[in-house]
């Protein structure tokens, strides 16, 4: 099966919108790779007092454990957490990473950055720029990559957005919560058979969990509400004709 890649800003971003799809893909025999552009060193350690580089090292290890649960490989770049910019250095690094792996499909967050996080939006812009650069080189296989954006229902990140407005407003690129989420999608992957893998993927990120409880991730009840489907919008690239994605497209059509 052709390759699948997930490109996100931080360790743990791969969990809530993508983990079930990655596990379904790898169990079906496909290759998957996860890239986090930062090590999450500017975050909060909910299990202890680690900060800065020490926290970043811990979170990079957690990313590796999460990916292992999903049957994927993983890498964390060292770009600055909380200050990602879609500049030439980041774009070039993503382009090289994609060129080495040559995935057919790349999953990332959409233009709302899930809950408006600046780093998430910078990641999405940098990925587009990296692929635009590939299009300028006709012999580059990554020019034919299809990008799918994670699609979340309106309102699901309301509590996260409110918390960020209170505690980290500088990290919000979208101030209006009405601009977050969308009702429709092009693909809906049934991840119910992979619920435990998705929970284990979240559980791997111990520094981000209150008392080590995956149920605390992004607020009580959030994870449990996202264990049935993972939805995606076709953003760019050729149509997906692989049976895996055809089934997801049919499922989406029948469930909307």
Gap between N and C termini = 28 Å
The largest sheet is:
7 strands, mixed
Number of domains: 1
> Which topology does CATH recognise?
Rossmann fold
Strand order of the largest sheet: 3-2-1-4-5-7-6
Number of strands: 7
Computed CA radius of gyration, to the nearest angstrom: 17 Å
How would you sum up this structure, described in words?
The chain is α/β, with parallel strands linked by helices and 256 residues long. The protein has one domain (4-255): LmbE-like (Rossmann fold, 3-Layer(aba) Sandwich), CATH 3.40.50.10320. It has helices spanning 13-16, 19-27, 52-70, 88-101, 113-116, 118-135, 158-167, 195-203, 243-255, and strands spanning 4-8, 32-36, 73-76, 105-109, 146-151, 187-190, 229-236. It has a seven-stranded mixed beta sheet with strand order 3-2-1-4-5-7-6, with helices on both faces. Strand 2, helix 3 and strand 3 (73-76) form a beta-alpha-beta unit. Helix 3 (52-70) packs antiparallel against helix 8 (195-203). The longest helix is centred in the N-terminal third of the chain and has 19 residues, at 52-70.
Question: Can you describe this structure in just a few lines?
Answer:
The chain has 256 residues and is an alpha/beta fold. Helices cover 39% and strands 14% of the residues. Helix 3 packs antiparallel against helix 8 and helix 4 packs across helix 6.
Question: Which helices and strands appear, and what pairs or packs with what?
Answer:
Blueprint: E1 4-8, H1 13-16, H2 19-27, E2 32-36, H3 52-70, E3 73-76, H4 88-101, E4 105-109, H5 113-116, H6 118-135, E5 146-151, H7 158-167, E6 187-190, H8 195-203, E7 229-236, H9 243-255
């Amino acid at each position: 099966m052709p390759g699948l890649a997930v490109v996100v800003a931080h360790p743990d971003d791969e969990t809530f919108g993508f983990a079930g799809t990655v596990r379904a893909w790898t169990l079906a025999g496909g290759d998957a790779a996860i890239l986090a552009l930062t090590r999450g060193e500017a975050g909060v350690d909910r299990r202890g007092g680690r900060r800065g580089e020490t926290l970043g090292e811990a979170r990079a290890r957690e990313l590796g454990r999460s990916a292992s649960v999903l049957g994927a490989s993983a890498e964390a770049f060292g770009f600055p957490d909380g200050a990602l910019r879609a500049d030439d250095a980041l774009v070039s690094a993503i382009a090289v990473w994609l060129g080495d792996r040559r995935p057919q499909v790349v999953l990332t967050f959409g233009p709302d950055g899930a809950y408006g996080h600046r780093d998430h939006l910078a990641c999405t812009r940098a990925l587009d720029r990296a692929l635009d650069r590939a299009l300028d080189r006709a012999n580059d296989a990554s020019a034919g990559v299809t990008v799918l954006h994670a699609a979340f229902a309106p309102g699901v990140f309301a509590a996260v957005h409110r918390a960020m407005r209170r505690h980290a407003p500088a990290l919000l690129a979208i101030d209006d919560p009405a601009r977050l989420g969308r009702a429709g999608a092009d693909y809906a992957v049934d991840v119910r058979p992979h619920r435990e893998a998705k929970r284990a993927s979240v559980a791997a990120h111990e520094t981000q969990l209150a008392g080590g409880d995956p149920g605390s991730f992004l607020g009580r009840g959030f994870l449990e509400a996202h264990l049935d489907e993972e939805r995606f919008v076709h953003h760019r690239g050729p149509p997906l004709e692989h049976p895996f994605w055809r089934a997801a497209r049919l499922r989406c059509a029948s469930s909307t």
